[in-house]
Design goal:
By secondary structure, the chain is mainly beta. It is built from 1 helix and 33 strands. The strands form 5 sheets. Strands 1-2-4-7-10-13-16-19-22 form a 9-stranded parallel sheet, covered by helices on one side. Residues 306-317 have low confidence and may be disordered.
Length: 411
């Protein structure tokens, strides 16, 4: 591969030499073996707002190149120094990624459709990192119709360290045109969705924080997702390959995690062909002598088989060589099925491969949690195998209904 070729954005103008529009056109035009990039060095006086604003009058070209659009090169700042503002467009998206492009350190708002549209066709990877989607760099709402939308057959998308707030519909929506979630790899990590960049001040999106109406394979971890009028994370009822772990999800009108868009789904005797059962909390008590709160729960779950033919092309199902489970426990301010503050997790070990497994466990944590509510989430993992090829698959449950902490005995 040749040395990287960097095109510099030197003006906030919509078009012409030094514009973002021209830089995208130039990067798209280079030879496929060249890894181009786009950097920012706008030399105009810094506006009183504290950031530069690019206002495209028509949709910007979709990116097809492999490389970075890196607005962090404009300077050092906690918030983006460059905003792409769609207020002068009658229709269209903010940035469209049709190639393995990484979008870094930019604010995108006021677009009539998507702030960022990822539309990949083939084994490519796109990344959205450190961006503000739906607010300006001063955390003032600048709503797009939807924050980030992705259509990604056989591709990978990484969304990390972003603030995705204030959009009219959901913050992140992901739809695959592939029938097999095994071909999709999505990482949504350490984002702030529905809140301000530096606090939990509400800047909600207008629907759910994250919305997956189709099957995908995803890792959703360490995000803050709050204050939405629908769900924190809204998922297809039969979503088989989704790891949701260590997120703070609270103060949404619907549950923190919801399969089927219908509220809490009851546990079943055999959960092997769907998402796992949630743990049932049977007690949560504070003992003043030890200074600890002890949580007791039980869980009935099965190792499962991959029910979706798309996961194992040409086969009726996958077999598995190992399956194991752990439970994450949370404390919440209300009885809602939230995951507001992670207390910790406990490994329950391997699952039986020939039927359901039953667990009863205690989990103790230091501190007086009386009057607060405990919830729990099951995370079930297994090796799914097709012939001699195996792949770790993880699945997360909905949160359990809250259980209020009481005193262990009269004091």
């Amino acid at each position: 591969m040749l040395a990287a070729l960097v095109f510099i954005v030197t003006t906030s103008a919509d078009s012409g030499p030094g514009s973002l529009r021209q830089a995208i056109l130039d990067a798209n035009a280079v030879h496929a073996n060249t890894q181009p990039g786009i950097a920012f060095h706008i030399g105009e006086p810094l506006p009183r707002s504290g950031f530069y604003t690019i206002r495209p009058r028509s949709p910007l070209p979709a990116t097809t190149f492999f490389g970075d659009i890196d607005a962090t090169t404009q300077g050092t700042s906690a918030a983006p120094l460059v905003m792409i503002d769609g207020s002068e467009q009658t229709d269209g998206d903010g940035i469209t990624l049709n190639g393995s492009t990484n979008l870094k350190g930019v604010a995108i708002g006021n677009f009539k459709r998507y702030g960022v549209l990822v539309s990949l066709d083939g084994p490519m990877t796109a990344a959205i990192e450190g961006d503000y989607i739906g607010i300006d760099p001063n955390a003032v709402p600048a709503p797009n119709e939807q924050g980030i939308a992705a259509r990604t057959p056989y591709s990978s998308v990484r969304i990390r360290n972003c603030v995705i707030s204030g959009n009219r519909r959901c913050g992140i929506g992901l739809v695959t045109t592939s029938s097999s979630p095994a071909t999709i790899s999505t990482l949504i990590d350490n984002n702030r969705i529905g809140v301000a960049p530096d606090s939990d001040r509400p800047i909600p999106n207008g629907a759910s924080g994250i919305y997956f109406p189709g099957p995908v394979r995803a890792d959703i971890s360490r995000n803050v997702i709050a204050h939405h009028p629908h769900f924190g994370i809204a998922l297809l009822a039969r979503q088989p390959t989704l790891l949701i772990t260590a997120n703070r999800i609270f103060d949404n009108a619907g549950n923190a995690i919801d399969y089927g868009f219908d509220g809490t789904t009851a546990n079943v005797i055999d959960d092997s062909k769907r998402f796992p059962n949630f743990p049932v909390i049977t007690d949560a008590a504070y003992d003043a002598t030890s200074g600890k709160t002890t949580i007791t729960f039980q869980l009935d779950t099965s190792a499962g088989v991959s029910w979706s033919p798309g996961i194992c092309p040409g086969t009726l199902y996958c077999y598995f060589s190992a399956a194991f489970v752990r439970v994450e426990l949370f404390v919440n301010g209300t009885s809602h099925s939230d995951t507001e503050e992670l207390l910790g997790s406990i490994s329950l070990g391997n699952l039986a491969l020939d039927g359901p497994s039953h667990f009863m466990k205690e989990f103790a944590v230091g501190g007086d949690l009386r009057g607060r509510w405990i919830s729990a989430v099951t995370i079930r993992s297994r090796d799914d195998c097709v012939t001699d090829e195996c792949d770790i698959v993880s699945e997360s449950s909905e949160p359990s209904p809250g259980f209020v902490v009481h005193s262990a005995h009269l004091e």
